[in-house]
Amino acid sequence: MSELDSCPRCAMQNTYPDGNLLICADCGHEWVPGEAPASNEPEARIIKDAHGTPLADGDTVVLIKDLRVKGSSTTLKGGTKIKNIRLVDGDHEIDCKIEGTPYMLKAMYMKKA
Predict the structure, then answer these.
(1) What predicted TM-score, i.e. pTM, was given to this entire model?
(2) Hey, which of 10, 29, 61, 99 has its CA 20 to 30 A from 42?
(3) For the residues 41-65, what does the mean pLDDT come to?
């Protein structure tokens, strides 16, 4: 069995072939073996709201449904306007403050105001 190339983005050896592509199981990067990488910079992730509108840092969004806060009896009400959001990597893409309390929320429950 021949040894596969390491990932050009994260340099990990945990790669596997998929057709003519190699895929890194650690970071999810896909590339064609032997091609020069475009850059070592990670690809910019585009985060979209519930209606498919791209979001950016500093945007104002509105909750489209009531959200129960895990580990609390608090419920964030649909229609709540959230100003000055910050986009972050991870499962919950939006970092924000609502009435002074910090929250990490998913973009799928927001619409751009």
Answers:
(1) 0.61
(2) 61
(3) 87
Cα separation, 61 vs 59, in Å, equals 6
Q: What does the radius of gyration of the chain's CA atoms come to, in whole angstroms?
A: 19
Tokens of 27: 């970071």
Phi-psi region of 71 (alpha: psi -120 to 50; beta: other; left: phi over 0): left
> What phi and psi values does residue 4 have, to the nearest 5 degrees?
-85, 155
Q: Are 53 and 46 in contact (CB under 8 A)?
A: no
Q: How far apart are CA 27 and CA 93, in angstroms?
A: 17
Task: Give CA–CA dist 24/20, Å, rounded.
Answer: 14
CA distance 15 to 45: 22
How do beta strands 81-82 and 101-105 pair? unpaired
